[in-house]
């Protein structure tokens, strides 16, 4: 599958040429990178008919040794591709050109360029992978003694980069001049405003590029012709790194955010902390999330001498955004916990009110059932007959009690007749009993009508 890798290189060259308006060679007959860059009559031309040298850049080259490539890119395909790259670099004729004495024929015709310097390659990789890259056999002869160690960018170097790359966009009308604006930009990215701290501070190139790009976007949005000191000191500029951090962290899970903000930042000293990569996996962070954060320059992965991979924030300037995000997350968690407790308390109160209301309804139903039961049993049921409780009968309904007594007196029965007869002493012949009976009848009628509710028939009989 080396041809697939070559086609990816050809496509990248064509895209860059279209962007910068360069002329590139046509596709070679053999399909190799060697023939593509070494044909004498088909070269790379820039604007103004200027002959240029192509430079092919392989960034993060250490991933060649760390990633599972898949897609059929096995070791044989990768070795074949980089042998072609190495031959194109040094000008060594490939095997297909050496077959059957074809090299001499091509040399006589002057079809190809065999001298070095026609084509260049730049490999960018981490320092701890130097041994693997130096031992990569297909490229050993091309990179034997040709390498350069890229040190961390210092503050003076960063100021020089900003001045050279974007100096035409800086306002030099102020008394401080362009250098003062460059220095303030670097101070924001390096998180080292003091002069003493700047001596040992470093600047992350990716974050510096991010800050300058967003600052220029703010200038364009405000329709300013140049970047001045006021724009650099504005609140919008101070939020560039924070917005970048927040936008990256919204793309990962809450577990990954908690790991970064709780395990990789020390709140007391406001500094970075490193953790083993295995700790992230144990916390529930996926490999895809780690790769994303490393690619976006939020995290970086380093391997110590014992072969253990460790994770940490890319730069100290990300500490404050991480701490601010952690504070917001803690406040949100406290708010949600308070709301949860309040909901539980309201639910308990509603349950208690519902139980109390249900108890009152059951008591009312029980009372109503007892009243219906008394009515079904009637007035003559056991213990409820009016005669069995004369006091309760009179107290509850005086007129009914008086009516009953009057009926008994008229009928001559009941408990009053013998008593009246005995008090008369003469039986039926005596006229007194009839007078007493008449007086008793009258008293009962009065009582029934309610004319004299307090009149005592027994006292009138005497």
Key terms for this structure?
two-stranded antiparallel ribbon; three-stranded antiparallel sheet; 462 residues; mainly alpha; elongated
Question: What secondary-structure arrangement, pairings included, does this model have?
Answer:
Blueprint: H1 2-20, H2 33-38, E1 45-46, E2 50-51, E3 55-58, H3 63-66, H4 75-90, H5 95-98, H6 102-109, E4 120-123, H7 130-134, E5 153-154, H8 155-166, H9 178-190, H10 195-198, E6 202-203, H11 205-221, H12 229-232, H13 235-238, H14 240-249, H15 254-263, E7 265-266, E8 271-272, E9 275-276, H16 277-282, H17 287-295, E10 299-303, E11 309-313, H18 319-377, H19 390-396, H20 398-411, H21 416-424, H22 432-449, H23 457-461
Parallel strand pairs: 3-4
Antiparallel strand pairs: 1-2, 5-6, 7-8, 9-11, 10-11
Helix pairs in contact: 1-4, 8-9, 9-11, 14-18, 15-18, 19-20, 20-22, 21-22
Explain what the structure shows.
This protein has helices at 2-20, 33-38, 63-66, 75-90, 95-98, 102-109, 130-134, 155-166, 178-190, 195-198, 205-221, 229-232, 235-238, 240-249, 254-263, 277-282, 287-295, 319-377, 390-396, 398-411, 416-424, 432-449, 457-461; strands at residues 45-46, 50-51, 55-58, 120-123, 153-154, 202-203, 265-266, 271-272, 275-276, 299-303, 309-313. It is elongated and about 155 Å long. The relative contact order is 0.04. The chain is mainly α. Helix content is 57%, strand content 7%. Helix 1 (2-20) packs across helix 4 and helix 15 crosses helix 18. The strands form five sheets. The protein has a three-stranded antiparallel sheet. It has 23 helices and eleven strands.
């Amino acid at each position: 599958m080396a041809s697939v890798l070559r086609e990816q290189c050809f496509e990248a060259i064509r895209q860059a040429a279209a962007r910068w308006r360069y002329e590139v060679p046509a596709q070679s007959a053999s399909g190799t990178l060697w023939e593509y860059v070494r044909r004498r009559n088909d070269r790379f031309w820039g604007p103004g008919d200027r002959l240029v040298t192509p430079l092919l850049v392989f960034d993060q080259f250490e991933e060649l040794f760390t990633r599972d490539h898949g897609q059929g890119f096995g070791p044989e395909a990768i070795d074949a591709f980089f042998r072609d790259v190495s031959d194109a670099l040094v000008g060594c004729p490939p095997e297909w050109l050496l077959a059957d004495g074809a090299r001499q024929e091509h040399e006589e015709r002057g079809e190809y360029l065999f001298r070095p310097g026609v084509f260049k390659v730049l490999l960018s990789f981490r320092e701890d992978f130097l041994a693997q890259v130096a031992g990569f056999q297909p490229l050993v002869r091309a990179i034997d003694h040709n390498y350069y160690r890229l040190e961390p960018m210092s503050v003076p170097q960063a100021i020089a980069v900003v001045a050279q790359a974007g100096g035409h966009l800086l306002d030099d009308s102020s008394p401080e001049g362009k250098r003062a604006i460059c220095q303030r930009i670097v101070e924001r990215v390096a998180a080292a405003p003091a002069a003493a701290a700047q001596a040992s501070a470093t600047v992350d190139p990716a974050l510096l590029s991010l800050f300058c790009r967003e600052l220029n976007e703010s200038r364009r949005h405000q329709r300013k012709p140049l970047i001045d000191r006021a724009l650099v000191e504005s609140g919008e500029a101070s939020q560039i790194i924070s917005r970048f951090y927040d936008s990256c962290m919204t793309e990962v899970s809450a577990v990954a955010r908690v790991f970064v903000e709780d395990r990789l930042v020390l709140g007391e000293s406001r500094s970075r902390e490193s953790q083993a990569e295995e700790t992230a996996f144990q916390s529930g962070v996926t490999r895809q999330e780690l790769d994303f954060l490393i690619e976006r320059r939020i995290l970086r992965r380093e391997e110590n001498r014992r072969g253990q991979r460790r994770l940490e924030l890319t730069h100290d300037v990300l500490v404050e955004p991480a701490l601010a995000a952690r504070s917001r997350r803690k406040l949100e968690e406290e708010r949600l916990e308070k709301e949860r407790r309040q909901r539980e308390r309201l639910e308990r109160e509603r349950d208690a009110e519902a139980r109390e209301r249900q108890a009152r309804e059951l008591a009312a139903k029980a009372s109503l059932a007892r009243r219906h039961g008394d009515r079904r049993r009637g007035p003559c049921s056991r213990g409820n007959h009016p005669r069995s409780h004369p006091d309760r009968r009179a107290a509850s309904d005086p007129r009914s009690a008086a009516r009953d007594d009057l009926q008994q007196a008229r009928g001559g029965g009941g408990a009053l007749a013998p008593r009246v007869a005995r008090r008369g002493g003469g039986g039926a012949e005596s006229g007194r009993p009839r007078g007493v009976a008449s007086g008793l009848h009258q008293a009962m009628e009065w009582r029934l009508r309610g004319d004299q509710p307090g009149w005592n028939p027994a006292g009138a009989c005497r």
